[in-house]
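Researcher: Let's walk through a ligand-bound prediction step by step. First, I give you the protein sequence. Second, the SMILES string for zinc ion. Third, you return the three-dimensional complex as structure tokens. Ready?
Model: Ready.
Researcher: Here are steps one and two:
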Amino acid sequence: MKTDQDRQIPEQIRQSGPGHLLIAWRDGVESVFPVRELRLACACAHCVDEWTGEYKLDAGSVPEDVRPTRIKAVGRYAIQIDWTDGHGTGIYSFDRLRELADRAEAS
Ligand SMILES: [Zn+2]
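Model: Step three, the predicted complex:
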């Protein structure tokens, strides 16, 4: 039986094509993320003000061809991505990634 939790557990994370990252979720859904959108969705303290929640990242400063250089597991709940623009402090929790994926699906 599929549980809600399965929605937030990736079976597989891999690069799919030059500018896309694919996550295959345990519930059978595959989400393809344009990597630059993930870079722009970074919610670390450099990109989003911790206190006000205000978005500080200037999208224009992120190259169109930004790519992940390294993707590292953080515990069992998140990944950390190093980027070609030198940024590497962003942590992407699986539930947030799934939320981004579901939102992209709906639009
Ligand atoms: Zn960031």
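Researcher: And what stands out?
Model: The chain has one domain: 4-106. Residues 47 and 57 are 5 Å apart (CA to CA).
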